[in-house]
Amino acid sequence: MVAGLLALLGILNDPGHADRLVIVAICDFVLAAVALSLPWTGLQPALIGVAGFAVIGISTWSFGGVATGTGPFLVLLYAWAALHFPRWILLAYLVPATLAYLVPLIITGQPPMVIGSASVLMPIAITVALLIEAQARHLRDDRERLARIEQWRSGMVSTLAHDIRGPLSIVRNVLEELQFTVTPDDQKMLDAALRQTDRMSRLADGLLDLDRIDSSGHLRLDRATHPATALVKDALTYVRADADIRFDIDETLLLYVDKQRFEQILLNLVTNALRYGKPPVIVRITRTGTADRLEVRDHGPGIPDELRTRLFGQFAVGGPQGVGLGLWIVRQLAEAHGGTAVAEARDPGVAMVVEFPLQQTP
């Protein structure tokens, strides 16, 4: 397309060859149309290159054998081919490329020095093309290798998350049975063990969510209307009983959310607030004009501004107590609801804010 437009502009500089330049422009536009319509599979696209060299030859002839304007297009065509085809095709292009350059010069009676310029241009063109092809091939190989690694990683994560849930269920059942036989002093240790099995279960669920989100790009939700207060209290039964958590929720407020995903969001935020902040942790839910706003605030030292901007990224804040997936999963689950997840500064502390769009009425 660009070559065709340049050919039409060339009429302004060389009106004496307007008819030839129009032919060149038509050839360029037809070639571009064919390239856009052909399926880019097999060797069919390589034939476009051969036709392109022919158009370059016609262009040189139309300019009366002046190759200064068409030589760069020959190199450019070779560079394009290097990005798409293997090196043997580049070598096979030597014949049509050389003919496209030399034949117009010979027909128009150019001096031997001009004709001899092919001995400089063609080696340069093929060398540039081979260098580009080698780099493009390395990049394709790296991309395929990374795709294989990612496939292996996804399989390992999925397998780990699935396989760990069975043993965890057995451990939890055993711990629950032991509650009826232990002394009051041992009960505290048993409660701690139960909380840790819950945490491991949630981590396994998070890994599964990570795999699902990476694979499909979205999560399927089962949204329904739930009383906000009951939803929050049910979710926080998984948090240790002595945690200083306070509520600020309208008793009449109803949330339109996926219950399981909402619980994951809330537990991730509350667990982070208890782990990294200072009590009390305040869970507040309010309704704005277009969304329900969940806010989990702690009273700790807060988070620096530069970290807040990337807090919800994947593996952004992993450490000894986690792998850095919790807040990323929160953001993904919020976006699956059509909402957002951000961190807002407070004095003192920080507030994690998730918004859920209101249910659309028919």
TrEMBL record:
Keywords on record: Kinase, Membrane, Phosphoprotein, Transferase, Transmembrane, Transmembrane helix, Two-component regulatory system
Organism: Actinoplanes missouriensis (strain ATCC 14538 / DSM 43046 / CBS 188.64 / JCM 3121 / NBRC 102363 / NCIMB 12654 / NRRL B-3342 / UNCC 431)
Localisation: Cell membrane
Leading EC class: transferase
PROSITE patterns from the UniProt entry: HIS_KIN
Record domain Histidine kinase: where: 159-360
A Pfam family hit: HisKA
Signal sequence annotation: none
Residue spans crossing the bilayer: 21-40, 46-76, 88-107, 113-132
InterPro entries: HATPase_C_sf, HATPase_dom, His_kinase_dom, HisK_dim/P_dom, HisK_dim/P_sf, Sensor_HK_Regulatory, Sig_transdc_His_kin-like_C
Catalytic activity entry: ATP + protein L-histidine = ADP + protein N-phospho-L-histidine
CDD domains in the record: HATPase, HisKA
A cellular component annotation (GO) from this entry: plasma membrane
SMART domains with a match to the protein in the record: HATPase_c, HisKA
Protein name: histidine kinase
Single GO term (MF): phosphorelay sensor kinase activity
EC number: 2.7.13.3
